[in-house]
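FYI - complex with FE2/S2 (inorganic) cluster, inputs then prediction.
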Amino acid sequence: MLPQTKTKIHNPKSRAMLLAALYIAQEQYGWLSEQAIQRVAERLGLTPGQVYATASFYTMFKLKPQGQYRIQVCEGLSCYLIGGAEPVIEFIKKRLDITNGGTSPDGKFTLEIVQCLAACDLAPAIKINDELYGNITDEKIDQLIAELSAKE
Ligand code: FES
C-alpha cells in the first residue's frame, strides 16, 4: 500500500479571491502581462506561478495584448449549421489581415473564435466587446469595422 500524502492548500482565502483579482487586473490593463500577474501574486500572497497557472487555464483571461475591439465569432452548432461560422471567420481574417487569436496591424481588432454566444436564434452571431450582433453578413461586418475604425 502506498503512503498517502496530504496536499495542503496554502492561502485558501487568497485562492478564493484569485479569479476576481485577475478579472479586475484584466479590466484595468486590458490583458494580463507578466507585471500584472506579479502584482496580483504580491497582493494575494501567492507565487506568480500559482497566479499564471490559473490565468492560463481560463480562456477569458488574455495573456497577450488585445485590440481595442475584441471580435468574437461564434462557431457553435447553430451558427455552423446556418453556414455562418467559417465564411464569417474567413471574411474577418481577410478584411483585417488577422489570424485567429491575433490582433490587426493597427492594434484595433482582435479576433477570437468562441463556442455559442447564447444567441442561437440570431445565428450567425458575433460579439464585439460587450455588444452582440446577429444575422451577421459580410456587409454588416464591413459596416461595423468601418464605424469602429473611424472612432478614436
Ligand atoms: S451557436 Fe452561435 S450563438 Fe449559439
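The beta strands are 69-74, 109-114, 126-128, 131-133. The first strand starts at residue 69 and ends at 74.
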